[in-house]
Specification:
Layout (H helix, E strand, L loop, with lengths): L8 E5 L13 E6 L6 E6 L14 E8 L2 E9 L6 H25 L1 H6 L7 E7 L7 E7 L13
Parallel strand pairs: 1-3, 5-6
Antiparallel strand pairs: 2-3, 2-4, 4-5, 6-7
Length: about 160
């Protein structure tokens, strides 16, 4: 896993999103550049479909309220276009890099989390989407507090 570097994160707040307010609908579209290592997070009321490429290596996330409780649902597209071997590799990469993605989302929207600090204790549910049962999983990935940078106060 790569180490998170705040200077390599670029955040775009779409129209209709206020940095410190509005939980539902609030979505995250996280992409990256293999060449530069830059991370891109779009915060919006819908996913930023323009950022999604045929490679499908983005991380999508949305706040939802179910049974009166908030949670963050995260979606990754595990299947590759070249069969089960590529799907296995993509699954491994997503699992290795997901903590970096969650840290980038948490850091990129840190003003929102500072104003709504109770959200650091909300469950993160990750959906590994695949047509193969072996890789089609729904898992609890903890809470956002685990993905918080401890020096955030110095990096606002």
């Amino acid at each position: 896993m790569f180490e998170f570097e705040p200077k390599k994160l670029f955040v775009d707040f779409k129209n209709g999103v206020i940095e410190t307010e509005g939980l539902v609908p609030r979505t995250y579209t996280m992409t990256h550049s293999d060449e530069t290592g830059d991370l891109f997070v779009t915060v919006g009321t819908i996913y930023d479909w323009d950022k999604i490429t045929p490679v499908r290596d983005e991380v999508l996330a949305e706040w939802v309220k179910e049974d009166g409780k908030y949670k963050l649902k995260v979606y990754v597209h595990v299947d590759g276009s070249k069969g089960i071997k590529e799907t296995a590799i993509r699954n491994e990469i997503f699992r290795r890099e997901l903590p970096l993605a969650l840290t980038a989302i948490r850091y990129g929207d840190r003003k929102f989390f500072c104003k709504n600090n109770n959200l650091d204790n909300v469950p993160i549910i990750v959906h590994f989407n695949s047509m193969l049962n072996e890789y089609n999983k729904k898992e609890d990935w903890g809470i956002f507090k685990q993905y918080r940078m401890f020096d955030e106060e110095n990096n606002r």
